[in-house]
Amino acid sequence: MMQKLAEAIRKKEAPVCVGLDTQLSLVPKRITDAAYKVYGMTLEGAGEALAAFNRDIIDAVCDIVPAVKVQVAMYEQFGIPGMQAYRDTVTYAKKKGMIAIGDVKRGDIGSTSAAYARAHLGRVQVGGATFRAYDTDIITVNPYFGSDGIEPFISVCAAENKGIFVLVKTSNPSGVEFQDRRAEGSPVYEHVAKAVAGWGEDVRGEALFGPVGAVVGATYPGVAERLRELMPHTMFLVPGYGAQGATAKDLKPFFTGNKDGVIVNSSRGIIGAWREERYAHLGKEAVGEAARVAAGEMIVEVNAALS
Prior knowledge:
Blueprint: H1 2-12, E1 16-20, H2 29-39, H3 43-61, E2 67-71, H4 73-76, H5 79-95, E3 99-106, H6 110-120, E4 124-126, E5 129-131, E6 138-141, H7 147-160, E7 163-169, H8 176-179, E8 182-183, E9 186-187, H9 188-204, E10 212-216, H10 221-230, E11 236-238, E12 262-266, H11 268-271, H12 287-306
Parallel strand pairs: 1-2, 1-12, 2-3, 3-6, 6-7, 7-10, 10-11, 11-12
Antiparallel strand pairs: 4-5, 8-9
């Protein structure tokens, strides 16, 4: 799946991912009103509003952006209807030819990780039948439980041609409290990076990028070169661009020498673009139109920084 993602990035010349961290505060009134008219001001109405908003975004960017990253927490807070909106968003993105990344940050002891892996990447058995619960292409995974918490995900990835992004160096400021602690002479994030590289090599085969990727925050360009050195055949998911402060000029160290191996996420900067004054000329509540322009601008900026 990581190889498929790399190929999609090259085909569209867009190392960019749209983060669907969709909150009701981001959804314009015309969309919420339509949802509430059918379902009322209920959890079901909230879920439909989120899904409808996401469809507008996906329709607008699917031909220029290779992937979406769907942040599960924004949907989970609305209970079962919210998770239905999450699943519908994943399904719709894939239908439109995009790769769907589930930002779920799962990880636990082996048997629980195996259940998470089946839910989000694989299949679950009910009697003599099997079903796919969410069927995301790639998910984010927390490595804190160690290898027995990661290996069930890798097994499902190998069987289903899926992928995982393991948290290595996150974009949030307080990540340094644990990730930068030194152990045996190196920061903890380097130990995690070495483990990620090893897990990936075990299953990479002839592919340039194996199914085990890494989350490396754009807000820490100073460590990116070292992490790329430690993980030369690892796809990087890079959050932190835009609203969290990172710019295109920070991104070059994250890429391989061939200027690939990275997908940069932007959430609010794209899905919230319709509220910005500089896009007002596109029309009132022009969700998709503004998202497309903002995504296009980001693609130009990132590619320019690489060249």
